[in-house]
Amino acid sequence: MTIYPIETGNFKLDGGAMFGVVPKTLWQRTNPADNNNLIDMSMRCMLIEDGDRLVLIDTGCGNKQSAKFFGYYYLFGDHSLASSLASHGFHQDDITDVFLTHLHFDHCGGAIQWNKDRTGYEPAFKNARFWTNRDHWQWAVDPNPREKASFLTENIHPIEASGQLNFVSLPTGNLIQNSPLGFDILLVDGHTEKQMLPKIQYQGKTLVFMADLLPTTGHIPLPYVMGYDTRPLLTMDEKARFLKEAADNQYLLFLEHDAGHPLCTVKHTDKGVRLHATYAFDEVFN
User: Which of 282, 261, 267 lies closest to 31 in space, CA to CA?
Assistant: First the structure.
């Protein structure tokens, strides 16, 4: 097995929205804001090469939305999904599986693209199976008012129409073991219903793809919860349990949204679990 970080682009979000009730005087120490109160965010995905299988975890926001839409998010940088795949010697048609942690636009938008004559949409990965779970799918296709702006129909319905949609079976607990993707999956519900976090054994280490349970290293303290979360108190509980496990077992945390830190570890302190160290991907894996 070989794992590659896939940089699909960067964007900006309001720092206050990203940290909820935490004052700016605190969160700006780790996530400095610009003059418009915006902080830098990445859309860092992961590619797993395992034999003949190429599994892409999340897809970034894609490029099919209007200039007005993207104007709200201030996209910047030179990265794209296609160029990042190409830098590792792959093409979109090589992908066999696309695993979507959840269906918010910045995680699944790259899964669907304009067709050739721009009259409709088609899968960006024509040979891939797309994976979500049935509970989250229903949550996304009939969205609540709080999340409706993040669940875009043009990102979601074409997946079903393509015939490439697959559902991971849900257990009674919060851990899917031996999933069809070849890794375990941790289920969390604070941010959105049945968000899925891959838990991967790689080169003797446990690597967890954090998606939106832990957007950046600045979100490690328990009260530092996004205003976007539908159940913030549940997020705090889920984060507390996970971070204790991560510190106890020296997990490596793969950060999808931290613009400066692809990987981190955490440790126990007198103030609770806190950041231990940050790493570039090739500092740890080669």
Answer: 261
At a CB cut-off of 8 Å and minimum separation 6, what does 85 contact?
6, 47, 91, 92, 94, 95
Q: How far is CA 276 from CA 44, 221, 245, 264, 266, in A?
A: 21, 12, 14, 7, 4
DSSP symbols for 212-233: TTS-SGGG-STT---TT-SSHH
Cβ proximity of 112 and 121 under 8 Å = yes
β-strand 53-57 against 38-50: which pairing, if any?
antiparallel
The model scores a pTM over 0.90 = yes
Query: What DSSP character marks residue 164?
Result: -
Q: Is the pLDDT at 71 greater than 90, yes or no?
A: no
Beta strands of 148-271 (E only): which ranges? 165-167, 175-176, 184-188, 195-202, 205-209, 252-254, 263-269
* Nearest partner of 97 among 58, 51, 55, judged by Cα: 55
Residue 125 CA, distance from chain mean position: 18
φ/ψ of residue 173, rounded to 5: -100, -155
* pLDDT at res. 67: 86
